[in-house]
Specification:
Blueprint lengths: L22 H13 L39 H8 L16 E7 L6 E10 L2 E12 L21 E3 L1 E6 L10 E3 L4 E3 L11 E3 L10 E2 L8 E4 L14 E4 L9 E3 L1 H10 L7 E6 L1
Parallel strand pairs: 1-13, 5-6, 11-12
Antiparallel strand pairs: 1-2, 2-3, 4-13, 5-10, 7-8, 7-9, 10-11
Amino acid sequence: MTIWPRSRPSGSRQAQPRRGAGPRATHLLAGALLAAGAMACGGCLAAGSPAAGSPASTAPATTGAASAAPASTGAASTSAADAGTPAQTGPADPLAGRQLITVTAASYGATYATFTAYRRSAGHWRPVLGPWTARIGRNGFAPPGLKREGDGRTPSGTFRFGFFFGVQHNPGVRFRYRQSQPYDYWDDDPASPRYNLWVDQRYANPGLNPEPMDVSGYDYGAVIGYNTARTPGLGSAIFLHVNIGIATAGCVTLPQGELLRVMRWLNPARSPRIRMGVR
């Protein structure tokens, strides 16, 4: 997805000149939970590969140290046993403490979606931020697996977050933050060897019609890990970034105040995921 220098943000493809829902919603959230165990960015202009969902009652399988509940050891365990406290026989919640964002639309053609952030606690997903109104692709959501470069649609699926970025200074986030400069672009040329990567034009060619990263819509943003395999044509530069009042070319956008709350809340140690699609 291409954003013209200082005139339109990725996902939106147009930016202001810089400086001066029911049972189906339950099903979507359920799918997000199952997909959270496995993951797969065009700016507001690309496509992606979805993750599979499952019934709301089924928790996703998880692996790795981040998802494993710490084993109880040492004096604390011994004292509990000595006191006659019954041992815990049920398995610990493998998703405890995890973070999940859902972005759900009423139909594939809708350009508005509901944005809600959740945290796993006591075996349940509990809302922490939202629900808020987000803007998505100008042509809505692409059905799972059908996102393509330049189609103006937001990919459906469950994804990790990459690094955070922005024209402005780091607003106090826990993810790695990269401040963009006039020579920074996102390569959204499927024929380029650097397709779907951030490119410093001083040192490498960002491809044909690359997306400038120093536009107003990118004052603050987060890379959504879509098409991380960089398969040509499946879409690039899919971000969560500042809304400039219009639908996007594939990204998800929020008003700046809400976006900053989300970015400061997200914690890489909590293995956050973002689930996007139709409810």
